[in-house]
Amino acid sequence: MDKQVIDQRVFDLYDEYCHGYIDRREFFRRAGALTIGGVSALAMAQALLPRYAEAQTVSFTDKRIKARYVDYPSPGGTSGEMRGYLVQPAGQGPFAAVLVIHENRGLNPYVEDVARRVAVAGFLALSPDGLSPVGGYPGNDDDGRTLQKSLDQVKLRQDMFNSAKYLQSHQLSNGKLGATGFCWGGGTTNFLAVTMGSDLHAGVPFYGRAPAAADVARIRAPLLIQSAENDPRINAMWPEFETALKANGVDYQRHLYPGTRHGFHNNSTPRYNEAAADLAWQRTIAFFKQHLA
């Protein structure tokens, strides 16, 4: 279904569903109760669910990359162990490295595809699965969202921090580290910028939660902040975040993409905006090449 025919009220319900405020059953119930042009909006709601197989852009067998799963220690995390999806470019390396952080549902196929895109661009990429200590991404976003919500969030963020340090010290890494992430992963990119200080060399959060204003003084990495125009929860945080960034002299850029919704980079659902996603991605890769060279 073309996104142009999906009513904004259905997109709003989907946003609540994606962020865990309502479950799948309630999402469909509320959408089914809406009538648009005399017809139930249930079909619109169904059209918003991700279609990962159709969205793949870089195959895991692509000759330009080598992809594999790796296990590594994660002291202080959920279980003390982590698993991630490591993708290296063709060649011997060492390479500048980029951590690719998933949304609030574990390491799904879309995020794995993003890791492969990062490697095609010439970077060593690691996408950790925050659900690996509890069995890994379960194969669908509903169960993944429930699992991730059930975890101790402090330990989960520690797992992401440990993943960043593992990647930075990997034998294929040259020590230069960037991070990017989407939604929850965007907020975690900001968390890493605060927590890692000068050990993080560039951060690109996509529509992520801002850190506390008092913590912004600890940021040393340049930031490229990617924002959707129609994203009330995240955009409400921007004025305070921007004030803190300026007050602390943080090197940052922010791009607000007109006509986009939260999740516009994810090409597996109708929230995807191809023109904005392509431009945001070009800017992301250029930013990493500038700061991780």
Explain what this protein looks like in three dimensions.
- By secondary structure, the protein is α/β, with parallel strands linked by helices.
- It folds into two domains: 3-47, no CATH class; 60-292, Alpha/Beta hydrolase fold, catalytic domain (Rossmann fold, 3-Layer(aba) Sandwich).
- It is 39% helix and 23% strand.
- It has helices at residues 8-18, 24-33, 42-47, 52-55, 109-120, 141-150, 153-168, 184-196, 232-235, 238-247, 274-292, and strands at 35-36, 39-40, 65-73, 81-89, 95-101, 124-128, 173-182, 202-206, 223-230, 252-261.
- It has an eight-stranded mixed sheet with strand order 3-4-6-5-7-8-9-10, with helices on both faces. A two-stranded antiparallel sheet has the order 1-2.
- Strand 7, helix 8 (184-196) and strand 8 form a beta-alpha-beta unit.
- Helix 1 (8-18) runs antiparallel to helix 2 (24-33) and helix 7 crosses helix 8 (184-196).
- The amount of helix comes to 25-40%
* CATH fold field value of the largest domain: Rossmann fold
Beta content comes to: 15-25%
Shape: globular
Overall tally of structural domains: 2
Low-pLDDT runs of 5+ residues are none
Element string (H = helix, E = strand): HHEEHHEEEHEHHEHEEHHEH
Strand tally: 10
**What's the tally of helices?**
11
How far is the first residue's CA from the last residue's CA? Answer: 42 Å
Structural class: alpha/beta
Largest sheet: 8 strands, mixed
Can you list the strand order of the major beta sheet? 3-4-6-5-7-8-9-10
The second-level CATH architecture of the largest domain is 3-Layer(aba) Sandwich
Q: Could you name the CATH class of the largest domain?
A: Alpha Beta
The average pLDDT score comes to 92
Rg measurement, Å: 19 Å
Q: What is the CATH homologous superfamily assignment of the largest domain?
A: Alpha/Beta hydrolase fold, catalytic domain
